[in-house]
Amino acid sequence: MALKVLKWLAGGLLSILLLVLLVYVASGARQPPANSASASWLGPGLHAVGQTDITFVDDSRPTDENRGNPGAASRTLVSTLWYPRNTEGPHPLIVHSHGILSTRSEMSYVAEALASSGYVVIAADYPLTNGATPGGANASDVVNQPGDVSFLIDSVLALSGDSKPFTGEIDGDRIGLTGLSLGGLTTTLATYHPRWRDPRIKAAVSIAGPSAAFTERFYTTTEVPFLMIAGTADALIDHASNAAVIPERIDNGALLSISGGSHLGFIGISDPLFRFMHNPDSLGCAGVLEVLEDPDGVFLSMGSEAEGVRIDPDAAGVCASLPPQEASHPGRQQMITEIGVLAFFESVFGSNEDERSAAAEQLRISLAEDFSEASYFD
């Protein structure tokens, strides 16, 4: 009798697993047409991808005390490096900055796509804004993260011998940035801030990054190409106040807008983890509002109106639109993001004019043709 029961339970468990597998497959993101321009930009590039963890310590700058937790005399950046295997380069270098309460691996799908196309990508857990920060992530430390970006660039350029896992060298004229949410703000500061910017940066992508407090004046320090990628269903960082304004405020700026895109939908784990949710930003808001103390104060510490920093009283605040509107499929959102980031950098860093032109066409025209959710504005 016991054997029959066990067999029945095993059969039932197998049926449940098969049902779950069928639901998972059936609910997957719809791919672009196989013969479309966008299909050729998805998936791995020409190179196998290597990945290694490495810790960099900046002894020249301290880590502040945080809510009763002691600081340190240095800033420790536990990092991951993605790189193409067995190719001499020279390689473009991309520094990715994570969002608040997140980690360096949040968008590894983009890092892997870039590395397979010949890029070296570095991302670090920032000392006071990552999800494991003692005392809770502190957005105020974002003012120190442009310095972390510059230090990461210095550190990767200085790698040599056994400490350098990739072959070939970094092309110092092809250094770019990406960043999500607070990391998008870090990217903007490292690119444009009149005192904190790094002049080695030649292209930058902010993904759902806050920007409402920056006027046109703020963006006049450089003419590097800039792309904002944002979702219209983002409940944390309002699309109208922070993304839609980019093309009119930045001479060399553009917006890749994703209809129904959520804030958490950009994070790799959102598909499949949040695939069945109305909008995962309800979870994101709960976490962010718990640690976010004074958003206006953070921006006011960045500079004055003369430097292009001004609090817009009409801009929607963080998580101002709850409950959020329904989000689109996070898998589709990530496909658009992966293609958009790669095509943007290739339109700037491509090895010849034909490659740069083809990438620009993919970004500006083909994405919207192949994905109904995507719109490009410049």
Describe this structure in words.
- The protein is α/β, with parallel strands linked by helices.
- It has a single domain (48-64, 71-377), classed as 3-Layer(aba) Sandwich (Rossmann fold).
- The protein is 33% helix and 18% strand.
- The chain has eleven helices and nine strands.
- The protein has helices at residues 2-26, 108-116, 145-157, 182-192, 239-242, 246-249, 270-273, 281-291, 295-300, 330-349, 353-370; strands at 49-58, 75-84, 91-97, 120-125, 170-180, 201-207, 226-231, 253-258, 374-377.
- A nine-stranded mixed beta sheet has the order 1-2-4-3-5-6-7-8-9, with helices on both faces.
- Helix 2 (108-116) runs parallel beside helix 10 (330-349), helix 3 (145-157) crosses helix 4 and helix 10 (330-349) runs antiparallel to helix 11 (353-370).
- The radius of gyration is 21 Å and the shape is globular.
- The model is unreliable at 17-23 (pLDDT under 50).
- The proportion of residues forming helix, as a percent range, comes to 25-40%
CATH topology: Rossmann fold
- Any idea what the CATH architecture is? 3-Layer(aba) Sandwich
Largest sheet at a glance? 9 strands, mixed
